[in-house]
Design brief:
Shape: globular
CATH superfamily of the largest domain: JHP933, nucleotidyltransferase-like core domain
Structural class: alpha+beta
CATH architecture of the largest domain: Roll
CATH class of the largest domain: Alpha Beta
Strand order of the largest sheet: 1-2-5-4-3
Length: 287
C-alpha cells in the first residue's frame, strides 16, 4: 500500500540528489502546515513568503523556510503550544522528526522553530537508491518563523490542502504577498542581496499583480524608509525601486537564486536596465 508521503512524492520528477532533497523538504513543509492547522494555529496567524507563493500561487522555484505572521501584535506569543499537535501529525505519517524552538540571545519580534530529521534515514524509506549519496549525519531542517508584531493592512484568504490530510490554511492574498516581497527587495541589507527576491518580483510583475499599498507603506514606515505622512503613490514606489536596482550586485543575486531554480537561462538578462525597464512596463499600468 502506498503511503501518503509516497503519494505526495510521486508528484515530483527527480534526476539528481539535490532534486530528491528538495522534493522531500517540500513534502515535509506541507506536513508542517497540516500539523499547524490541526493545532488551531491559523486562527491567529497567516502564511506568507516564498513558500506560500510556491504552494498556493504557482511559484516555480524551491523555497526553504515557512514564514508566518500573527493577525494582531502579541508580544508574549508562545509558539511551543503548537508543537504537540505538529509532532503528532509528523509521527502519524511514519516520519521521524523533532520539533525544537530556536532560542535567541537577542529579544526580537520573531519566534522561530525547526523541524529536524536525519536525511539518510528518510531517503532509505522513500528514495533508497539515493541514500548512499548523503552523509550519515546530514539533517533535513525546515525552519518556521512567526512575526509577532505585524505591520497593519495585510489581507488574507483561506486555501485548502488535501494532503497529507485535508485542512485550511490562512494565507496572505497576492497583493499582500507582493507588498512583502517589495519590502524585502528594498530593505534587505546590502550583504544579504537575494536573487530570490528579484526572481519572485518578476513572477508578480508577469502576472500584473496588484500591490497592497497600505501594507507596503506600513512596512516601509516601520523600517524608517519613509515617514508616516508620506504621500505614498505608485510613482514614489517606482522611484525607490529604480534607485535600488541601480545599486544591486547582480552577480551575487544570480549566484543566490541559481540553486533554487531549474531553468537559469533568464538570469543572463539580469542587470539594472532590465529590472528598471520591466518595472516601468509592468508595474505602471498606463506607461
Amino acid at each position: 500500500m502506498t503511503s501518503i508521503i509516497e503519494q505526495m512524492l510521486s508528484r515530483y520528477k527527480t534526476s539528481n540528489i539535490d532534486e530528491v532533497r528538495n522534493a522531500l523538504k517540500e513534502v515535509i513543509q506541507e506536513v508542517v502546515l497540516a500539523g499547524l492547522s490541526k493545532a488551531g494555529f491559523f486562527n491567529e496567524a497567516a502564511f506568507y513568503g516564498g513558500t506560500a507563493l510556491r504552494i498556493f500561487y504557482g511559484l516555480d522555484r524551491f523555497s526553504e523556510d515557512l514564514d508566518f505572521s500573527l493577525l494582531e501584535p502579541k508580544a508574549d506569543y508562545d509558539l511551543s503550544r503548537c508543537f504537540s499537535a505538529l509532532s503528532d501529525e509528523i509521527s502519524s505519517l511514519g516520519l521521524n522528526f523533532a520539533v525544537e524552538e530556536k532560542k535567541k540571545n537577542i529579544d526580537t519580534f520573531e519566534r522561530s522553530a525547526f523541524v529536524k530529521g536525519n536525511t539518510r534515514e528518510h531517503l532509505l524509506k522513500f528514495y533508497p537508491q539515493s541514500a548512499g549519496k548523503v552523509p550519515y549525519n546530514e539533517l533535513i531542517k525546515i525552519k518556521f518563523e512567526v512575526d509577532t508584531n505585524p505591520p497593519e493592512g495585510a489581507m488574507y484568504e483561506f486555501k485548502t490542502l488535501l494532503l497529507p490530510s485535508p485542512c485550511k490554511i490562512r494565507v496572505y492574498d497576492v497583493g499582500s504577498l507582493f507588498a512583502g516581497k517589495i519590502h524585502a527587495l528594498l530593505c534587505r541589507g546590502w550583504s544579504r542581496v537575494k536573487g530570490r527576491d528579484l526572481y519572485d518580483y518578476l513572477f508578480y510583475l508577469a502576472r500584473r499583480a496588484e500591490i497592497n499599498m497600505q501594507n507596503l507603506k506600513a512596512k516601509l514606515v516601520d523600517f524608517n524608509m519613509i515617514s508616516r505622512d508620506t504621500d505614498f503613490t505608485l510613482s514614489v514606489l517606482v522611484d525607490l525601486l529604480d534607485e535600488r536596482f541601480k545599486k544591486l550586485n547582480y552577480i551575487q543575486a544570480k549566484n543566490d537564486v541559481r540553486p533554487f531554480i531549474k531553468d537559469t537561462s533568464s538570469l543572463e538578462l539580469w542587470d539594472a536596465e532590465f529590472f528598471i525597464s520591466a518595472t516601468h512596463q509592468y508595474l505602471i499600468k498606463d506607461f
